[in-house]
Amino acid sequence: MPISGIMNSFIFNFNMKNFLIKSSFYIVALILWFAILGLYADGNTDDNYRHFTGPRPSNIILGDSRGSQALVPDVLDGKFKGREFNNFSLNITESPYGQVYYEGLKKKLNPDTKNGIFILTVDPWNLSVNKNIKSDKDLFEHKSALADMHFYEMSPNYEYLLKHYSRSWFNIFKERESIVKSNTYLHKNGWMEVNVSTHPDSLKMRENRKVNDYIEFEKTQKLSQYRLKAFQDIITYLKNKGTVYIVRIPASKGIMDIENAYLPDFSRRMEELSKKNDVKFLDFSPEYKKYIYTDGNHMYKEYGKVFTAQIADSILLDQKKLK
Amino acid sequence: MLFNSIGFLVFLPIVFFLYWFVFNKKYQYQNLLLLLSSFYFYACWDWRFLFLLVFSIGLDFFSGIQIENSKTKKTAKFWLILSITINLGFLGFFKYYNFFIESFAELLNGVGFNVNIWLLNIILPIGISFYTFHGLSYVIDVYKKRISAERNYVDYAVFVSYFPLLVAGPIERATHLLPQIQKKRTFNYEQAADGMRQILWGFFKKMVIADNCAQLVSEIFTHYQTESASNLVIGAVLFAFQIYGDFSGYSDIALGVSRLFGIELLKNFSFPYFSRDIAEFWRRWHISLSSWFRDYLYIPLGGSNGGMWMKIRNTFIIFFVSGFWHGANWTFIIWGLLNAVYFLPLLVRNKNRQNLEVVAMGRLLPSIKEFFSIIFTFMLTCFAWIFFRAESVTQAISYIKKIFNSTLFSIPHPLPIKIFSLVAVMLVIEWMNRSRFHGLEIERLNPWMRRGLYVLIIFIVLRYANFGNNEFIYFQF
Asked: I want to staple A241 with a disulfide (CB 3.0 to 4.6 A). Which of A113, A225, A302, B87 is the partner?
């Protein structure tokens, strides 16, 4: 039955019918606009969109932006034949360890996961909080997509776009990856590929800026029992579904100096935590000189691949020992 | 729930459908639906404050009846004062407690006494300034016998909490809104269609103008110390358009939504940036608040009947209170007083009511004199807006000082051509409709031109709007 027929059956008021028919025309056009543009959403859309598109993984990497750039799932897939990894690390404001990230993880992970491999990347910052925040509910991650998304495997994910894409949707179409790949491109497997100049002058300039940022940032931070508790809960949850590895990702000397001054015993704490939970801790922080960083904090992608391969080798070695 | 949120886009059609198709047998049923919807709308922010709203409604409803039932003037006055005290007490506590305590401590520190102050972590209940003023005007009107006390709680509660106006006005009067609530509403196509046009125009002003200006304004005000003087001027001008787009956009959406339910709300804005002097500006900006202060403060204080000094004193009081109403910060108070200073020459020369009609009526363009008067008035308001926008008086003064240096005549960088083009589109459309009820009242155009304009505006919204669920500035007041 056409729309006008349905309307005739219960709307007797001509004025109302006229109003609804004319309004529907515009509403349908608007819905089509959004529906069509949403189809073009991809790794260029924004830094998080693809974390909320499927499929749900059984092997996962957690952490913040260091983890999202330094751990390349393709490398792990190559090393662990038959497994597919997903990097579910977002950034320091949205995915520090906490209740929000834990709940997000439960929705992201394949519920049937058994014998999975889970790499939990840590640094002092994703287990810290701002000193001035009075309540855990005021933490920024409560405003992130992890806090209010229901669907994690829709593609295109209209829920995400409606709730968290704040620009005009026309930009999704205009900046789609088939035109040009963004400098911050999020792969389907969750790896954030960052393409910036690696000229030594550029690297130095970005590192200096980042170090200055972290000097200020460090003053506002303190190690958080709330985050440690959530981290513990995540380990316990994942241990029931496979093997957990805790990995400390290094940064440049400037940043490592700040970290070591802020929490000199951070690696020891992680070691103790891993022993307590009977999981392996891989501390790469002493080897920070081996890698190049785009801004002092994030590993350059080619070195990320090398770094990921080293993690994979360590895990394979560990698994061999276990057998 | 924000008007520019997905939640509201689902909420509105559901309430509309229930209102006209399910609860349409009696207007009482429709009122009940409006009340429940309004409470739900409010609870979406923070359900705990719903109790405060319900209490405030109950207090004024009960006080109104007691005032009317009072056998003596003294008893009636008692109930009036009780209601006003409690209403202002809540407003004062939630909005001004920390401000008074801090200011008092600073004063004592200034004279050599060191005091430890006890600040509270108070969350401001959204819309409290607006619904408190609804209630106050109602009890005062009952006391003054301008209206009878309302005996139906639901009708009264709808008057105060009607969702389109609940959180940021317009500040309604019982004499205007209650009679509409207490009669059968029938669906009127022209009213609803024009309501939709007004909603569209409101979204354009909020999402395209205000939200785009907001990003640059925020950038400039945050880094004002390193910006060039010409950029600081751009920041002040864009803030003028931001706050206009934000607040008048909100009002347009509120009025348009209400018209879908057959209820007309008070006009809140009437193209204020086309004003030729500051008095005209204040007749066209936030009209429902200005007229509230006029009727419930300025006139009771004696208005303009007691000679020039009385007039000047009362004008300063009005602007002082208006500034304070906006928030517990000296920046708002100075903004208010600055506007009073602007008013002074007009008052002294008795020229504050010289521009009562629409500018350039019957002509396409203004005269040269009108044009420069408009520009001058706009510059005055931009200057005052700097205080309104700044975090502190110190910042505002520092911002203004930095405007007056050699870089004032440099080319702003970046030159916000896109934003100014969008503002120009808004100004042209509003200029063409400056004698109308709202900026997109275009039913006089032929249907194809009208539809073409709708498509163009919708396209601009879709192409240039910010979809970040940005809050409206006036929600904080």
From this structure: A113
* Closest by CA position to B64, among listed B174, B158, B172: B174
DSSP designation for B99: H
Contact B121 A163 (CB under 8 A): no
DSSP label of B151: -
Q: How far apart are CA B388 and CA B396, in angstroms?
A: 9
Which amino acid makes up residue B374? Answer: I
Write the DSSP assignment of A78-144 as a string of letters.
HHSTT--EEE----TTT-SSSHHHHHHHHHHS-TT--SEEEEEEE-GGGGEEETT--SGGGSGGGGS
pLDDT per residue, tens digit, chain A (323 aa), is: 555 555 555 556 778 999 999 999 999 999 999 999 999 999 999 999 999 997 999 999 999 999 999 999 999 999 998 899 999 999 999 999 999 999 999 999 999 999 999 999 999 999 999 998 888 888 999 999 999 999 999 999 999 999 999 889 999 999 999 888 889 999 999 999 999 988 999 999 999 999 999 999 999 999 999 999 999 999 999 999 999 999 999 999 999 999 999 999 999 999 999 999 999 999 999 999 999 999 999 999 999 999 999 999 999 998 888 76
How far is residue B242's CA from residue B215's CA, in Å, rounded to a whole number? 10
Instruction: In whole angstroms, give the CA distance from residue B452 to residue B235.
Output: 33
Distance CA B277, CA B346 (A): 8
3-state secondary structure of A241: coil
Closest CA to B178 of B160, B164, B191: B160
Q: Determine the 3-state secondary structure of B391 from DSSP.
A: coil
Asked if B18 contacts B55 with a C-beta cutoff of 8 angstroms, the reply is: no
Quick check: ipTM above 0.85?
no
Q: Do B467 and A167 touch (CB under 8 A)?
A: yes
Residue type, A200: P
CB–CB of B326/B285 below 8 Å?
no
CB B303 within 8 A of CB B287: no
- 8 A C-beta contact, residue A170 and residue A53: no
Secondary structure class of B86 (helix, strand, coil): helix
Q: Report the C-alpha gap between B318 and B314 in whole angstroms.
A: 6
Please state whether beta strands A59-62 and A280-283 pair in parallel, antiparallel, or not at all (unpaired).
unpaired
Out of B454, B463, B469, closest to residue A170 by CB: B463
Size of interface A-B (CB pairs under 8 A): 41
**CA A226 to CA A133: how far, in whole Å?**
12
